[in-house]
Amino acid sequence: xxxxxxxxxxxxxxxxxxxxxxxxxxxxxxxxxxxxxxxxxxxxxxxxxxxxxxxxxxxxxxxxxxxxxxxxxxxxxxxxxxxxxxxxxxxxxxxxxxxxxxxxxxxxxxxxxxxxxxxxxxxxxx
Length: 126
Fold this sequence. Notes:
The protein has helices spanning 35-44, 66-81, 93-102, 104-107, 114-124; strands at 6-7, 11-18, 21-30, 53-64, 85-89, 109-111. It is α/β, with parallel strands linked by helices.
């Protein structure tokens, strides 16, 4: 069941369950002014990460700056520290290039399409 979304004028975050994961679906822009909203949403999930971890769905995220990328890295490291997964799902071409240029595509678990997510969910349910 979806939880109440976190909203700012430029960023909306919807939270729901996808298999054993908690999913945060981001819509809008993630930058210096909106990063506190994502930080708050991630902090609220800090303990109930889901049985396997968190998926951050970027399908409808238009823009991310270095502050937002830093939040992804911090959340990824926190998840690993407690034995959970942190998955970045469907970044648009701009964000995908940014992840690649910064080397984060190699550090983060990035899935570029729905089929990849379905394969992960199938493996996790075994």
